[in-house]
Amino acid sequence: MKDFKRLLGLLGPYKKNLAAAMLLVLIETSLELVIPTLAADLIDNGIATGDVRHMLLVGGGMALCALIALITGLTYARHAAKAAYGWGARIREAEWAAVQRWSFSNMDHYETSSLVTRMTSDVTVMQNAINGGLRPLTRAPIMFLLGTFFSFTMNAKLALIFIIMTPLLGLVLFLIVSHVAPMYTKLQATVDNLNSVVEEDVRAIRTVKAFVREEHEEGLFSKVNNSLRNVGTKTNATAALNMPFFQLTMYTATVLIMLLGGFMILDGEMEVGALTGFLSYVLQVMNSMMMLSNVFLLLTRSLASAGRICGVLDEEPGLGERKNPVTSVEDGSVEFRDVSFKYAQGAKENTLQGISFKAKPGSTIGILGGTGAGKSTLVQLIARLYDVSSGAVLVGGVDVRDYSLEVLRDSVGIVLQKNLLFSGTVRENLLWGDSDAADDELWEACRKAGAEEFLRRFPDGLDTDLGQGGVNVSGGQKQRLCIARSLLKKPRILVFDDSTSAVDSATEAGIRASLARLEDVTKIYIAQRAGTLRGADLILVLDDGRLVDSGTHDELIGRCQVYKEIWASQLKGGSL
Question: Domains in the chain and their CATH numbers?
Answer without folding.
Answer: 2-314 (1.20.1560.10), 334-573 (3.40.50.300)
